[in-house]
Amino acid sequence: MDGGRNLREIAFQLRLAADLFEESPAGTHAALKRIPRAATEERTPDVWREIAEHLENWNERVDRSTYVDTPLTTRELLLRFPRFRQILPIYFGQDGVAISDDMQDATTEEGIRMYIEETHPGCPWELPSVVSECYQAIAVFHTEEQMDCFFAGEAMGGGSGGSDDFVDFFPMFARLCIEHLREAHSPLWQPKRPWPRPDGTD
Q1: Helices (H), 92-161
Q2: Are 135 and 170 in contact (CB under 8 A)?
């Protein structure tokens, strides 16, 4: 759905892997170096063909309405926030207490700017994803209570820093990252040739 390989293409590749495993049961073929084998080598081709069949019939087996209506688990949600899983516990401790010695008396904004400074000059590779996670948090968690429970409680154990609520913290974090990218790294991308303006002028 997101533009990657579709299920039938993946199923075809799995069947190809099954054929190669039949040719070399020990997985010695160069294309099989990173593909796992079943517990017993002779069972491996059948396992991959079973998975391929499962993929091809995926859309028929899944009850989409039930799937969409089922709340995500904490573990599933954690996959959306790989950078926050590092940033929040390291820079902001439990209940908003700064862990870093340099941040003991820092405001939330100063703490965020300190993080941004430490990513520099690798900011173009780090900060866009952080901004994305900020807005994902706002989109997924609709109340301060939910955000606090997830980010400062059971899931991450990291506060938002200072006394700021997460509903204020995430927009501020995103804004400061974007401001830094505009000021210190603009432009991040340039077209190969200038495009005409909407009014038709170059």
Answers
A1: 108-119, 123-140, 144-149
A2: yes
What are 44-87's pLDDT values in tens digits? 999 999 999 988 887 766 666 776 778 888 888 888 999 998 88
Measured distance CA(86)–CA(158) in Å, rounded: 9
| Residue whose C-alpha is closest to residue 108's, from 85, 132, 88 | 88
How does residue 144 score in pLDDT terms, banded at 50, 70 and 90?
A: very high
* DSSP SS3 for 93: coil
The number of angstroms, rounded, from the C-alpha of 8 to the middle of its chain's C-alpha atoms is 25
Rounded to the nearest 10 degrees, the angle between the axes of helix 166-184 and helix 123-140 is 150
185-188 contact pairs (CB < 8 A, 24+): 185/123, 185/124, 188/124
Cβ proximity of 177 and 116 under 8 Å: yes
Torsion of CA 13, 64, 61, 77, to 10 degrees: 60
In a 13 Å sphere around the CA of 193, the CA atoms on its Cβ side amount to 3
Query: Would you say 131 and 171 are in contact if contact means Cβ atoms under 8 Å apart?
Result: no
Closest CA to 81 of 121, 144, 146, 138: 138
pLDDT confidence band for 201 (50 / 70 / 90): low
Give the position of tokens 């959306």: 80
Q: Model-level pTM?
A: 0.62
What secondary structure does DSSP assign to 145-201, as a single string? HHHHHIIIIITT----STT--HHHHHHHHHHHHHHHHHHHS--S---SSPPPPTTS-
